[in-house]
Amino acid sequence: xxxxxGFDLQNICDVNIIVATxxxxxxxxxxxSLNESAAVMWNAVVGKDFTARDLAQALTDEYEVDEAxxxxxxxxxxxxxxxxxxxxx
Length: 89
Description:
The chain is an alpha+beta fold. It has helices at residues 36-45, 52-62, 67-84; strands at 2-3, 7-12, 15-20, 32-34, 87-88. Strands 2-3-4 form a three-stranded antiparallel β-sheet. Strands 1-5 form a two-stranded antiparallel sheet. The longest helix is centred in the last third of the chain and has 18 residues, at 67-84.
């Protein structure tokens, strides 16, 4: 997976928001906010190919969480990102 070109994480008034930039995302009309742990995962993989395991690694590096819980959370977050259209294979 990879974050689609033209989607950036911005912190606006202490809220993490995915912002669509560029002409290729002109029809993107969703507002996506990320909680702190989702923002940690996003920042860990910007500009890289990644898997759910990579996202889980970012969680275990940042928080005191076991691998199984981190992987479960990472897989759910990745599923949401795919459904929102902000990542691509």
